[in-house]
């Protein structure tokens, strides 16, 4: 179980990135990856895959991002593996961003908050992804709990999947897109925070360069799509321009495909980190 972290999430993230670079690596035990590693697509294969990747990378990357769905698919055995992944990552010094994309209202959102952001919870992570599409205010419990416990939330704002375009690009009566309104709400939560606030946003590395302004966010930005999904380091510069403070490019398959050899996984991280260093300040 995870105790109370020391310091704010924004401060801990800034320190981790300064020491290890901005790369966030996903731990996504996709069945196809298990097969590529020569592992069975069962709970035993899941455990070997997830722990091998975590043990290899937790000592060298700033953030590890387990995708909860791939663990949940194996029922209670998968959740037990996820608990071990969280503990192993922490032992290696990586921050854990648990990709759960939860979003609900009332007591249900409070229960999700207790599961992932409360001190002592078996699945407590340093941060989680959340969905604001029942209204940004539906996330209040998670945002406040994260602040109180030194954790963070990353709010889906402008994702790169085509299905999200219709909603996220829609405009309100003032002409602002839904995605921009989400970023603006997150910015309000981060006002006055130093060096970064605890409310981040998710903006895909493959979206258009002028779709959202992050100038006032004062929080971290998770940028999925880098690597196997097609976005390059140059795309990061194109999409985010000078608004790169707190940027966390995330790569999963492009790193994990080099397993199961731990040295090959670490070498893939080093190559990716060198590429990012030539683009990001």
Automatic annotation (TrEMBL):
<comment type="similarity">
    <text>Belongs to the OMP decarboxylase family. Type 2 subfamily.</text>
</comment>
<feature type="active site" description="Proton donor">
    <location>
        <position position="101"/>
    </location>
</feature>
<dbReference type="InterPro" id="IPR001754">
    <property type="entry name" value="OMPdeCOase_dom"/>
</dbReference>
<keyword id="KW-0210">Decarboxylase</keyword>
<dbReference type="GO" id="GO:0044205">
    <property type="term" value="P:'de novo' UMP biosynthetic process"/>
</dbReference>
<feature type="domain" description="Orotidine 5'-phosphate decarboxylase">
    <location>
        <begin position="22"/>
        <end position="268"/>
    </location>
</feature>
<dbReference type="InterPro" id="IPR011995">
    <property type="entry name" value="OMPdecase_type-2"/>
</dbReference>
<dbReference type="InterPro" id="IPR018089">
    <property type="entry name" value="OMPdecase_AS"/>
</dbReference>
<comment type="pathway">
    <text>Pyrimidine metabolism; UMP biosynthesis via de novo pathway; UMP from orotate: step 2/2.</text>
</comment>
<keyword id="KW-0456">Lyase</keyword>
<dbReference type="Pfam" id="PF00215">
    <property type="entry name" value="OMPdecase"/>
</dbReference>
<protein>
    <recommendedName>
        <fullName>Orotidine 5'-phosphate decarboxylase</fullName>
        <ecNumber>4.1.1.23</ecNumber>
    </recommendedName>
</protein>
<dbReference type="GO" id="GO:0004590">
    <property type="term" value="F:orotidine-5'-phosphate decarboxylase activity"/>
</dbReference>
<keyword id="KW-0665">Pyrimidine biosynthesis</keyword>
<dbReference type="InterPro" id="IPR011060">
    <property type="entry name" value="RibuloseP-bd_barrel"/>
</dbReference>
<dbReference type="InterPro" id="IPR013785">
    <property type="entry name" value="Aldolase_TIM"/>
</dbReference>
<dbReference type="GO" id="GO:0006207">
    <property type="term" value="P:'de novo' pyrimidine nucleobase biosynthetic process"/>
</dbReference>
């Amino acid at each position: 179980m995870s105790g109370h972290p020391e310091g704010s999430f924004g401060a801990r993230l800034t320190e981790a990135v300064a020491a290890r670079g901005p790369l966030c690596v996903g731990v996504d035990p996709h069945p196809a990856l298990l097969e590529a590693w020569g592992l069975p697509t069962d709970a035993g294969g899941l455990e070997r895959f997830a722990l091998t990747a975590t043990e290899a990378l937790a000592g060298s990357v700033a953030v590890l991002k387990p995708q909860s769905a791939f663990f949940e698919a194996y029922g209670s055995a998968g959740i037990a593996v996820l608990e071990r992944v969280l503990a192993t990552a922490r032992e290696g010094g990586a921050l854990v961003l648990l990709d759960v994309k939860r979003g609900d209202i009332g007591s249900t959102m409070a229960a999700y908050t207790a599961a992932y952001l409360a001190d002592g919870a078996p699945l407590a992570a340093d941060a989680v992804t959340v969905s604001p599409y029942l209204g940004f205010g539906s996330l209040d419990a998670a945002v406040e709990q994260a602040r109180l416990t030194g954790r963070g939330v990353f709010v889906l704002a402008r994702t790169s999947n085509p299905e999200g375009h219709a909603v996220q690009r829609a405009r309100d009566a003032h002409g602002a897109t839904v995605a921009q309104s989400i970023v603006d709400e997150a910015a309000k939560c981060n006002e006055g925070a130093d060096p970064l606030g605890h409310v981040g946003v998710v903006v895909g590395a493959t979206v258009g360069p002028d779709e959202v302004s992050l100038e006032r966010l004062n929080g971290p930005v998770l940028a999925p799509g880098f690597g196997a999904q097609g976005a390059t380091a140059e795309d990061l510069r194109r999409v985010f321009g000078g608004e790169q403070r707190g940027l966390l490019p995330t790569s999963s398959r492009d790193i994990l495909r080099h397993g199961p050899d731990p040295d090959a996984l670490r070498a893939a991280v080093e190559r990716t980190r060198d590429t990012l260093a030539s683009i990001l300040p």
